[in-house]
Each structure stands twice: as C-alpha cells, then as structure tokens.
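Project standup — Tuesday

K.O.: blocked on the structure for the chain from last sprint. Re-posting the sequence here as requested.
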Amino acid sequence: MAERFEAVVGTEGSGTFVEVPLDVPAIFGRVRAPVRVTINGFTWRSTVMRYGERYYLPVNARNREGARVAAGDRVEVLLELDAEERDVTVPADLADALAAAGLRDAWDACSYSHRREWVEAIESAKRPDTRTRRVGRAVASVSSS
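H.V.: unblocked you, prediction finished:
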C-alpha cells in the first residue's frame, strides 16, 4: 500500500524533516512504521517518528541531496510500508572491534538506523586513521547504549 501527500521540507534545530499528515498507525499498523520514502524519484528507507500527536520523517543531508530538495521546498512524498528485513553488513574491522569488546550482541540490539549510520560513517572515511577513530566511536556508542 502506498500513500501520497504533499509537504514542506522543514527544519528545527539541526533536524530536517517532512510532516506526515496521515493516520500512520491506521495505515501502516504501528506508530513507528518502517517505510520507504520517495521524493523526486529518490527512494530511501526510514522510520516514521511521532512527536506529540504529529508524525514526521527525517530527511538527512544525504537524502536531501539525492532527492534534490532543501528546507522550505514543497515536495510530493510517496510513502510505502517497508516489510523487508533491515540488516546492515558489518565491516570486518568493526566486527573485530565489537567482538574484542564483547559487544556484538549489543550491536545487534541497536536500531537499524544507528547501525546503518555508524557503518556509513566508517565506510566514508578517506584515511585509515579516520576509519580507526570512527570504529572506536561506534564501539563506544554501542557500549554506552
């Protein structure tokens, strides 16, 4: 099932989002529904967030760039339930660091979004020392969650 709506790309603090003017639990079966979002032909996986009585979708910098949108733009959003398993491939150096710290089970318990963001940060490092620091940060984040 797919839902279309128009929204303005908004910002608050450092966050960028679109408000979802739908009854998310009635349509998708849960408040924090996993969805596929498409704007301007660019699709990504996300989760609907609820704040008070309103629903929002985050639109991070990578997704704004891919969809070619900026804060203040009026966009048409296509929203579909994402029933596929959400899995993140763990790079070998991160897997080794998690195993050494005894945190692999804790990693697996973290949200898909956090795991994906940590792996993207690690894999986008241009220098080996940056990658090593990012692996360390990911392990520290998992340890404190």
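K.O.: great, moving the ticket to review. The chain has six helices and eight strands. Residues 50 and 56 are 6 Å apart (CA to CA).
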